[in-house]
Amino acid sequence: MSETSRTPLLEIKDCTMKFPGVIALSGVSFSLLPGECHALVGENGAGKSTLAKCITGEYRMTEGSLFRAGEEVDLSSYSVSKSQHQGIAIVHQEFQLMEDLTSLENIFIGHYERKGLFIDWKAQKEKADELMEFLQCSINLTIPVKYLRTAEKQIVQLAKAIILDAEVVILDELTAVLQEKDIENIFRIINILKKKGIGLIYVSHRLDEVFEICDSYTVLCDGKHIKSGRVSEIDKPKLIEMIIGRELSSDLYPAFDGPIGDTILEVKNLTSKDTFKNVNLKVAAGEVVGIAGLVGAGKTELVNAIFGSYPVTNGEIYIKGKKTEIRNPMDAIRHKIGLVPDERKLLGLNMMYDVRNNTTLPSWKKFKKYRIFSDHKAEIEKAFEYNEKLKLKYRSLYQKVLNLSGGNQQKVVIAKWMLADSEIFLFDEPTRGIDVGAKFEIYKQIKELTNAGKAVIIVSPELEELIGLAHRIYIMFEGEIKDEVSGERKTQEVIINSLLGVN
Ligand SMILES: Nc1ncnc2c1ncn2[C@@H]1O[C@H](COP(=O)(O)OP(=O)(O)OP(=O)(O)O)[C@@H](O)[C@H]1O
Ligand SMILES: [Mg+2]
């Protein structure tokens, strides 16, 4: 059968979605064919998650229509449970698992198998085991989710979505938190689903993935439909151009060729009971140091320990050669250490505060007038300047960060620490979920920091990013620094082998 004669699994026509004061989507149309993976791409705040939620009935689109297998859906009574009955499933951008429940319980929440009045655990277990076998995954389904690795949690999220025999599966940045090896596993599963005739809508900022796994694409920009087409007919520069509305003027990574000064931070034998031990590392003024490691290697815990927000059982921290006690984040801030954390909802932002307050919180001292009053004007100007630098998409500085898109929340966290005038910057996965244009801006900012003599430590799951940014990369494996690469050894191959414990 030719492609055009197949009935699409899903068709969206002229979808418009308005929130108070924002038109999140306007006139978006595309269709999804059986067995195909459709990439939904665009800058942060372009409307991708909103479109996904309109399709699943979480939001009711203001205008437009939806067709499922050729039949128009009655949107006036559409809801999440109706979309599930119609075989539409989603894995959301933010984790939505109950950490204390087992995977099995999580998979069946809301749609238990029943035998009379009781939940039929045996049938559920069989069904879940069958699904895991189909996906060729072996995960212990009977332990609480909190004990699983991030990559396993993602597979549980996916299993939860497809257990109801979904035919349309939306994956909203499923791989943003994963690394190469786990992403390959997800791709393997996507291919299994495609072969079964399932259609997938794939949201991601990692554009290489689009070319590896997707068949068709839709680009959104500011809620508007830029273009849809076949992936085979475009290349990466073209896609970037469509997403950011211009060509990327130079390489994504700036040249870090400024002078490197004295060591600013040195960590000696830092140990935290079960998480990491005997970590030695240093970073100098003007230097970017990367930390690579698989999920669970202890990278996040390490940078948090340096920031005083993770317990340390042994070891010392030296700042400019002077032994320094950092017992809590207040100590760290006093010593001009800033942390851009990876769990932005928990640590980085106060969701109920507005953009301005979130941006200026750690640097409130700067905005004191006559010691007691806040200099609101200066505060607003600075918050504006930094958020503009990062191309934040927001309505006003007084908007709650809760209503920003995922990637734009991350930008506020970064702006906040850039403004805080730190000397040592700890970035934990700073570009997770950030669009390609904004990544470019963040890299430029990091370069400006090093030019100004700041020291930067960066943790990232994307090796390409570490190689592009860092002078030296420490490789962490099961809580220990196993290797350090720089110069000619700073290649994907050397690092991957080291990460996997091959050499
Ligand atoms: N519940 C809401 N109330 C008000 N505005 C919202 C709400 N949800 C999203 N928006 C706004 O709608 C626009 C689109 O947001 P959306 O989350 O769909 O972006 P996205 O493309 O998924 O971005 P990202 O790549 O950062 O995840 C943004 O301007 C956002 O601030
Ligand atoms: Mg989103």
How is this structure best described in words?
The protein is α/β, with parallel strands linked by helices. It folds into three domains: 3-244, Rossmann fold (3-Layer(aba) Sandwich), CATH 3.40.50.300; 262-336 and 422-503, Rossmann fold; 350-421, no CATH class. The chain has 17 helices and 24 strands. It is globular and about 70 Å long. The chain binds adenosine-5'-triphosphate (ATP) and magnesium ion.
Q: What structural category do the secondary elements indicate? A: alpha/beta
Q: What is the mean pLDDT? A: 87
Q: What is the tally of helical segments? A: 17
Biggest sheet, strands in spatial order? 6-9-10-3-11-12
Radius of gyration: 24 Å
Going by CATH, the architecture of the largest domain would be 3-Layer(aba) Sandwich
Number of domains: 3
Relative helix content: 25-40%
Could you say what the CATH topology of the largest domain is called? Rossmann fold
Largest sheet, strands/sense/barrel: 6 strands, mixed
Number of separate strands: 24
Assess the beta-strand content as a share of residues: 25-35%
Bound molecules: adenosine-5'-triphosphate, magnesium ion
Q: What oligomeric state do these chains adopt?
A: single chain
Instruction: Compute the separation of the termini in Å.
Output: 50 Å
